[in-house]
Design goal:
The chain is an all-alpha fold and 288 residues long. It has 14 helices and two strands, in the order H-E-E-H-H-H-H-H-H-H-H-H-H-H-H-H. The protein has one domain: Orthogonal Bundle (MetI-like fold).
Length: 288
């Protein structure tokens, strides 16, 4: 039996074309114009592109975006691997604890942000009740603590998702590999680093790509928790794009920033796939 024909992929292709490719083309065209949202766009050539790369706030926002992506990687990936491997086991009450831990997956980013904004309110939230730990309690008043809050909330929200990925991958590892390792005298820690981690390679690469793309498009959490503040200290590039479009009504420059984000996310993803060898779709269980 041969592979399904193009007709099977037509609905998905049509959907992707209408809701992804067409808007993307429109944004690229708009990046070469000036438009306030009213009237007709006016062609301005490369003016928007020159302006955005001379904008110090945009340069700062790009650095902050990279910082948030790096912080997400170093916090979420190790924790997700450990929790995923644990959840793949057969410990007592594992299913119940896993179900509780996966609750954030059921909530929207906006709901989670509103929740943590209330919990961390400097006057009525947890920090205000524990001055010996949080000082004045205003975690949103300094750049370092505001970045810490955003990193923590992102970790709380998205770690369960990546945990689910690693849980499935860990359960697919053949038990014979662990049996062979035990025969060779490998303990639990040694088995984790020499058996489990190598078998999770493709899942790690997938998670990193998803995390990078997600970090480059993070917006709602910043909007609700910090509104880009204090000042512009947490103004990441997607949020700055929103400010340009819906506060300054400069849709031309906002479109140019959007194109930069698309190109950056695509380039980074392709590099990760190329460097990791993930594009070859090689199984981690070759030879078994």
């Amino acid at each position: 039996m041969g592979r399904p024909g193009f007709v099977w992929a037509a609905p998905a292709t049509l959907f992707f074309g209408l809701f992804a490719l067409v808007p993307l083309v429109f944004v690229v065209v708009l990046s070469f114009t000036t438009w306030s949202g009213l009237g007709d766009p006016k062609f301005t050539g490369l003016d928007n592109w020159v302006a955005i790369f001379d904008d110090p706030i945009l340069i700062k926002s790009l650095g902050l975006t990279v910082l948030f992506v790096v912080l997400a990687l170093i916090t979420q990936i190790p924790l997700s691997i450990l929790l995923g491997v644990w959840a793949a086991g057969f410990q007592r009450n594992r299913a119940v604890l896993s179900a509780i831990y996966f609750i954030p997956l059921l909530l929207s980013s906006a709901a989670i942000s509103v929740l943590w904004r209330a919990l961390l309110d400097p006057n009525f939230g947890i920090p205000g009740q524990l001055p010996w730990l949080f000082g004045d309690g205003n975690l949103f008043g300094k750049q370092s603590s505001a970045i810490g809050v955003l990193t923590f909330v992102a970790m709380w929200q998205f770690t369960p998702f990546y945990t689910l990925i690693f849980q499935g991958a860990a359960r697919a590892i053949p038990p014979v590999l662990y049996q062979a390792a035990q025969i060779d005298g490998a303990g639990t820690v040694s088995q984790f680093f020499n058996v489990t981690l190598p078998q999770l390679k493709n899942s790690i690469v997938t998670s990193v790509i998803l995390m990078v793309v997600g970090g480059l498009t993070a917006f709602d959490t910043v909007l609700i928790l910090t509104n880009g503040g204090p000042g512009t200290d947490t103004t990441v590039t997607p949020f700055y794009m929103y400010q340009k479009a819906f506060r300054a009504f400069d849709f031309g420059q906002a479109s140019a920033i959007a194109v930069v984000l698309v190109l950056a996310a695509t380039a980074i993803s392709l590099v990760l796939v190329r460097v990791s060898g993930y594009g070859k779709m090689q199984s981690a269980q070759d030879g078994i």
